[in-house]
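Researcher: Please translate sequence to structure tokens.
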Amino acid sequence: MRKIKNPLVLFLLSLTAISLSAQMNFEEGSWAEAKAKAAKEHKFIFVDAYASWCGPCKWMAKNVFTNEEVGDFYNKNFVNFKIDMEKGEGPELDQEWKVNAYPTYLYFNGKGELVHRTGSAKEAPDFIQDGKNALDPETQLGPRMKRFADGDRDPEFLRNYALMLSSALMDTKDAAEAYLKTQKKSDLNSAENWAFIQRMVHKSESEEFKYVAANPEAFAKVADGRANVDDYIMGVLDSDIQRAARSKDEKKLDEVKKNFKKIMPSEAQMLSAKADYYFYSLVPEKADQYANIYLNDYCKDWSELNTAAWNSFKKYEDETHLKQALKWADKSIGIDKNWYNTDTKANLLLKLGQPEEALKVAEESMKIGDEAGEDTHDTDALIRQIRSEL
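Model: Translation complete:
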């Protein structure tokens, strides 16, 4: 074997070795091969369950899996394995692992037994802490699942277990309900329980939600103000609207609207108009009617208005729809002027045959977007298009 004497070559090789150790090293083979390697090396297994289209998955791969501290910790303690859950052996493993969202992180012991899981994009220190929790039987999720199945109903255990399930992107319903059953109504407005309710309770039929809605002032102090309680209530009612729209069942829509009058009578008209807007959005003969009622008379959300305006820009060619969309864009700008809604307005103006005005708005949008650090590539292309046509 020929020895390398050139110091520059040795230096470059050492840099290569350092760069390889400064990030997570993932196995290239199959799941069976990863398990075999872990058994041989007496290591746990870390699995990154991802999908090719998943933005947070790509962010983790770029920003966290390449982190030196992350690489040192995971390479030392785990055989690392990543798998696209929609390709190859992914769909089969998905049935076994029940992955509900991406990214999901699965941790197995050396025998290939699932002991812990978490999920979502997170910073390096939190990701390392996930790994430490997976190695410690006292903090693993797996043993807690068994404790719950065996009937442990200690309140502190139930609360922590439900929160762990939430972090693992798993179904929290049974654990959350079991915990809340251990709490008196008078104890629900503690800071700890308010945080738990916000994270776990998202349906208006829940008794805990009904209690919050009926006693908002009781939660205002721990919620840092009544406005935050109202935001939570409105968020749950928004979820009701989305579920009713997906159901395509007018009886469900009527039930939801009746519920608005009971829970938040001051906002019932607005919420009912919003429910009609979403429910009938895909019904051609009714979509315009309910869109105009909600967006013109009730909507105060710049993003919602901008989305409606942009969708109309993409969908319609006639002047009536485009002029209505322009009104929504202007209303959006009046609430919060930003790159998104000014770009929408510029596109609408051009489609309406007003290139000079469109150019002015597009140039202003470009400036706003650049100052905000937005990707203004499309606005730049629009400006060039308008100038070429003038």
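Researcher: Any highlights?
Model: Residues 300-390 form a domain with the Serine Threonine Protein Phosphatase 5, Tetratricopeptide repeat fold (CATH 1.25.40).
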